[in-house]
Amino acid sequence: MSAPRIALVHAMQVAIDPVVDAFRQLWPAARVTNLLEDSLAPDLAAAGSITPAIIERFVNLTRYSERCGADAVLFTCSAFGTAIEEAKRSAGIPVLKPNEAMLEEALQAGSSVAVLATFEPTIPSLKSELQKLALDRGIKLMIKTRAIPAAVAALQQGRGAEHDSLIVAAAADIGKCDALVLSQFSMARAATGIPVAPGRKVLTSPESAVNRLKQMFDAR
Fold first, then answer.
1. Are 3 and 30 in contact (CB under 8 A)?
2. Nearest-CA neighbor of 115 among 138, 124, 139, 155?
């Protein structure tokens, strides 16, 4: 049996390298494809919320990936949770939200979760997903959030070190928590610079998502 083909669907260019690197390190046998639709993030920012038209685009992206031979689809932009849920329902293959696996790991770490995001529209979607997961598990959750839009702007302009230092500073400023969630795939590069704190787990989307997909296909 050939290795599974995983379609990665991106809304931002800066998300591609972190997840491709995660596959290379954690699941090199997987066959990875990349599809970039970089009008999604500005269209969401302009609309202010996920519209029926945006949902339809996610359904179409998923169906396109499936028709191209994908065995699973992983979306890498965290702000589109409800659109991806609809895409999941329309697909005949597994479809994974960007932070789905990471958020479950966060709840396993404890009831206090801090969320850092460099694309601010991510926060409402991610907070809603976390609250739903906690409710389903009977967990009384405390959530702290912090947006760092200057970080993604720096990264897009080639100032990677500045991006990382802004995230490290926000991680220090947000205080104690059981799990520190780095919401964007592009933020994973900053994780190694965040000092180890007793009782706090630092989680990144690419690592959690790739491990989840590998476990799914290994179990078949």
1. yes
2. 124
Determine the length of the chain: 220
Q: Considering the entire predicted model, what is its pTM? A: 0.89
Confidence band, pLDDT 50/70/90 cuts, at residue 1: low
Distance, in Å, from the CA atom of 76 to the CA atom of 205, rounded to the nearest integer, reads: 8
Look at 78 and 211; give whichever has higher pLDDT: 211
DSSP annotation of 185: G
Domains within the chain, CATH numbers bracketed:
5-98 (3.40.50.1860), 100-206 (3.40.50.1860)
Q: Alpha-carbon distance 83 to 56, whole Å?
A: 8
Pull the structure tokens for residue 42: 């500005």
Cα dist from 204 to 41, 71, 81, 105, 201, whole Å: 20, 23, 17, 10, 10
